[in-house]
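$ ./design --mode recover --in tokens.txt
reading tokens...
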């Protein structure tokens, strides 16, 4: 079993019983054990962190950043385990609700909804599920291309919770076709695109803090074929609880590189990027 899936299953039993703050603390300790016992993921994350360090708000060595990333991922797992405790309205409040700072962006998304296709570009940062629930509450339902989490029961549990919050999960090649059809009907979808390319997969080179990175071209090809509005989107955790700052780039041009749009949240909170493979 994938170490992160094992961590999720182990954590799940305790995370539902403990108060949320205690569950976050327990999760950080559990992920310390995963950090120590998973050299492949730890070393890949360290190589990524070494490239980040000159550009981000972090004062320690790469090893300290990586350990913090593992711990932050534990906090995300607590949120994922307890996703069924939240309603879409709770998710909206967690990202600031009707805060005037985001009001114009929500209004613009509301104007576009069902009038044009919207494709959110999301990275493994902060908490993307919270954003999906918030979008359902404020705007309407969406689709999301989901990852294989390493265990069938785990996949089923998480995807059912996402669907309850208004995010219809889609996976694999069939899921991609569903998302394309949904976008062509002026729907909304989200794709986590920051992953290493698969063998023989079409790629693009994009800059991240000045370094060329190969990423799958899939999300750009989908946006082009559906004429979707491509919008970089992240939710930065504030502190160690269920509060987030959304980053929504409505001005992004569809043919522009995506990765530079995420440099601001990565610079602000590099410990919230959960990239445990060579990127």
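writing sequence...
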């Amino acid at each position: 079993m994938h170490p992160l899936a094992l961590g999720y299953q182990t954590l799940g039993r305790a995370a539902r019983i403990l108060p949320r703050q205690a569950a976050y603390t327990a999760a950080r300790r559990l992920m310390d054990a995963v950090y120590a016992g998973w050299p492949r993921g730890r070393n890949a994350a360290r190589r990524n962190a070494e490239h980040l360090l000159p550009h981000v708000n972090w004062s320690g060595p790469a090893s300290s950043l990586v350990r913090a990333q593992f711990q932050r991922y534990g906090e995300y797992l607590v949120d994922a385990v307890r996703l069924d405790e939240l309603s879409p309205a709770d998710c909206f409040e967690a990202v600031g609700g009707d805060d005037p700072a985001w009001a114009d962006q929500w209004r613009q998304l509301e104007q576009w909804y069902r009038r044009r296709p919207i494709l959110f570009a999301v990275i493994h940062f902060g908490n993307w599920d919270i954003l999906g629930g918030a979008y359902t509450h404020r705007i309407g339902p969406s689709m999301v291309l989901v990852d294989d989490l390493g265990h069938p029961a785990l996949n089923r549990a998480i995807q059912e919770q996402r669907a309850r919050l208004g995010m219809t999960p889609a996976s694999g090649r069939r899921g991609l076709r569903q998302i394309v059809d949904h976008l062509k009907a002026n729907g909304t979808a989200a794709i986590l695109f920051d992953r290493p390319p698969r063998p023989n997969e079409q790629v693009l080179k994009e800059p991240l803090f000045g370094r060329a990175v190969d990423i799958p071209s899939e999300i750009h090809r989908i946006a082009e074929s559906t004429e979707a509005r491509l919008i970089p989107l992240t939710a930065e955790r504030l502190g160690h609880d269920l509060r987030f700052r959304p980053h929504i780039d409505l001005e992004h041009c569809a043919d522009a590189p995506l990765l530079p749009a995420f440099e601001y949240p990565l610079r602000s909170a590099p410990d919230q990027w959960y990239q445990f493979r060579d990127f």
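exit 0
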